[in-house]
Design brief:
The chain has 400 residues and is of the alpha+beta class. It has 12 helices and 7 strands. Helix 5 packs antiparallel against helix 8 and helix 10 crosses helix 12.
Length: 400
């Protein structure tokens, strides 16, 4: 089941993506190679609320944190579809691993936003890891050559391992009014970390707060949050921030769900319900649950891939088509999250008490998927925007 599911998603990506340089298989092979190491240290993810350095370094050395680094800087510059293939596979292996790769590799796209003279130095280190946070807005005071930046930003996934941090900041104009927000890139020695990550799911992501107080950020280490001008030619770097950002993690819940299907299938072949001699896999109600889970998973994945393909195609189309494509991609993210949630919860219900023990991969999948889908990138509020457009109204909200 696992291999069949993976091949079908790669087929969607291959059919919808015209890229001739496909390194997806290299990264999928790296994940398979790292599976024993991740399994060996997985208990520590929850206990330490971060992944051990050994695991982080292995993921970095495999190139899994630079999937969106431009080809011009020596990166693979995977298409969004191929990127999601890797993220889904990583998340099926472990939700924390998928989340960190999605966030870290997603932020390697900064190579297409800032001058190459800056980012080439940063990414000369194969273990460069970018943390970003837009859950709060700091302040950026213009000074000669750049800005003095202050703020505290939450949800910095992978913060203990980060070499650089991106915080969103508002710029005060000469008239006293706030200018459009900018992304400010800070080095590790410019921030103070706060271990705030005491949560139920995705515990190993160490999504700590980070804080800066009046640190100097050169102008060439900043760019507009919305409407930035890319510094590299790839289509990837022209996709609007509010669309490409959710693309970096939208496949995580689907990956967790796929891993849960595989885990449950293995459990059902060994476990029987108390009071009966029949294995779970022999019961029709269980068979139907798994069948529905497979259908829901593949349907959600297909919608996500199709909507991303339409978004890429709409980048050179008119404004109306691009707006609709952006909205449809966001509802595909929300739909994928909701589908994954239902899949995991239904399988855990069929597993019974086997799904409540911490040693169970299903128990972890339940916690992780419930945490992942609460991210704003998958908010169901986007359905309202899509509904307004479907009813012939204006979007009513620009945050899509």
């Amino acid at each position: 089941m696992h291999q069949q599911s993976r091949r079908s998603f790669e087929t969607i990506a291959r059919d919808a993506d015209n890229s001739s340089d496909d390194r997806t298989a290299v990264y999928l092979a790296a994940l398979r190679t790292l599976t024993p190491l991740i399994g060996q240290h997985r208990d520590a993810f929850d206990r330490q609320r971060r992944i051990p350095d050994t695991v982080f370094e292995a993921l970095a050395d495999a190139g899994l944190f630079r999937l969106w680094l431009p080809k011009g800087l020596g990166g693979p510059e995977l298409s969004p579809l191929r990127f999601m293939t890797v993220i889904e596979a990583a998340s099926a292996l472990d939700g924390t691993v998928g989340w960190l790769i999605g966030n870290g590799a997603g932020m390697s796209r900064v190579g297409g936003y800032l001058p190459a003279s800056v980012t080439s130095r940063w990414f000369s280190d194969p273990r460069t890891f970018m943390v970003s946070a837009t859950g709060a807005v700091g302040t950026a005071v213009p000074v000669k050559g750049g800005y003095r930046v202050s703020g505290r930003w939450p949800f910095g996934s992978g913060a203990p391992h980060a070499t650089h941090f991106m915080g969103l900041a508002s710029v005060e104009g000469e008239d006293g009014r706030d200018q459009p927000p900018i992304c400010c890139y800070l080095t590790r020695d410019q921030v103070r970390l706060h271990d705030t990550w005491h949560v139920s799911g995705l515990r190993g992501t160490a999504s700590w707060d980070f804080e800066a107080e009046g640190v100097f950020v050169p102008a060439d280490r900043t760019h507009l949050f919305l409407g930035h001008q890319p510094t590299q030619p790839g289509l990837l770097y022209r996709i609007p921030s509010l669309s490409i950002f959710p693309a970096s993690i939208s496949a995580v819940p689907l990956g967790i769900a796929r891993g849960a299907i595989d885990t449950f299938a293995n459990l059902a072949s060994r476990k029987s319900r108390q009071g009966t001699g029949a294995l779970l896999c022999e019961r029709e109600i269980v068979q139907a649950t798994v069948g529905r889970a497979i259908a829901a998973h593949r349907a959600a994945r297909a919608f996500l891939a199709e909507s991303m393909s339409e978004l890429m195609a709409a980048m050179d189309a008119g404004d109306d088509q691009l707006v609709r494509a952006r909205v449809e991609f966001r509802i595909a993210c929300a739909h994928a999250a909701e589908s994954a949630l239902r899949i995991v919860d239904s399988l855990a219900a069929e597993a019974g008490t086997a799904a409540i023990f911490e040693a169970s991969a299903l128990e972890r999948a339940v916690r992780d998927v419930h945490a992942a889908v609460k991210h704003v990138a998958m908010t169901p509020n986007t359905y309202i925007v899509a509904g307004r457009l479907g009813l012939g109204l204006d979007p009513g909200n620009a945050r899509f």
